[in-house]
């Protein structure tokens, strides 16, 4: 007994010493040290350690706060996050971080404890909470009175925008509203002016697949807004069926957007294993051969599709409404030979792209380091030498520092016309409020979800792990990701 007691005291003393060491590191003036301390404290797992991790949620440095946000999802209790340390904080970033991490928690969460924080005065918070509730519901870890939660979420739908769209998708995941009541919500959203709500109605109708839902899907497939059509086509891949294939073949013959046509062809090729092109006739023959109740047994992912006449560093560009984001942080200025840098390579590829855009295409440029710098406030048509103007602007843009990629993406997404983010980067965010790539990718995916926006990325010098995160984001948004080992020759041709 004495021996066991001595061992316990020794172990406790060891944990206490570790806590003191990590707590000192948590007070460091260096953000990297504080981030490492947050991870170590979470690993320690004591209540005192978790209390410090909770404090890290309000750290002004993104790498520290993001690490705290990531780790707190696995805390033994999420109760403190319901109060002033989380959802009721005076700091809007703390509120958003707390709202997101609930959705990743493996623990059961009472739905009403989150729903009661929905507020029209904080639409970003409401959108994030609805997204977290949806993730919990789909994971089977949401508890409590679903009907009560659903009634409150139905009010949030009426607010529209990202918050309303997220709430509508959450309602579908809850399965709590009576079928007639939810059908009315879907129809109201599908028939309204709000683009995000129409996109959410399309996805929810596909997921639910009740009486009348498919008729709504077919109607929205011809929506006047290309973002709604794109979001609908992406949602068809959730559970492809013969009916989904028929709609794709029909849209292949009618769709005008090259970007959407490419995604339709991608689905058809992946579902069928065939490699027909854009002519709908062979696809109709394939469709006629499918038995009732067909669904694809194995889905493939074709690497390339025909029809792309424009590229950026090897990425096919079919969009007519693209915003190019170029990382100008320290690593992009790295020399790849005696005279040229990675930035020089980006400039070469940017010129190739802009000079091949048609006059009807719209584009914008954003260079980013410590903060984003946009060429224009919104997309502009490629007329009257604007490509040349944009290239001259980029040539003169002299900024450096850490790479705040998230702020640049957020700035690009403020323009409702953007349907593609084309990002040239080393792949690792190093500045700003968002630092952890896993978090940033999930948040960007959700923000693109009801707009039909794809994320394409060209990575230079990225690690294998980083590249895999970008490939996942690209796949989930219908985009492409390419890793480069850049060497620029004197003639200006990149070695890919």
End-to-end distance, in Å? 68 Å
Architecture per CATH nomenclature, i.e. the level-2 architecture of the largest domain: 3-Layer(aba) Sandwich
Looking at CATH, the homologous superfamily of the largest domain is von Willebrand factor, type A domain
Regions with little confidence, pLDDT below 50 for 5+ residues: 1-12, 488-496
Report the portion of residues in β strands: 5-15%
How is the topology of this model organized?
Elements: H1 2-26, H2 31-44, H3 47-56, H4 62-72, H5 92-102, E1 109-110, H6 111-115, H7 123-139, E2 142-143, H8 146-157, H9 161-174, H10 179-191, H11 195-208, H12 213-220, H13 226-235, H14 242-254, H15 258-272, H16 280-288, E3 311-312, E4 315-316, E5 321-327, H17 342-354, E6 362-368, E7 372-374, E8 380-381, H18 386-396, H19 405-413, E9 420-425, H20 437-449, E10 454-460, H21 464-477, E11 481-484
Parallel strand pairs: 1-2, 5-6, 5-9, 9-10, 10-11
Antiparallel strand pairs: 3-4, 6-7, 6-8
Helix pairs in contact: 1-2, 2-3, 2-4, 3-4, 4-5, 5-7, 7-9, 8-9, 9-11, 10-11, 11-12, 11-13, 13-15, 14-15, 14-16, 17-18, 20-21
Describe the protein in words:
With 496 residues, the protein is of the alpha/beta class. The chain folds into four domains: 10-107, Alpha Horseshoe (Leucine-rich Repeat Variant), CATH 1.25.10.10; 110-235, no CATH class; 242-301, no CATH class; 311-484, Rossmann fold (3-Layer(aba) Sandwich), CATH 3.40.50. It has 21 helices and eleven strands. It is globular. The N and C termini lie far apart (68 Å).
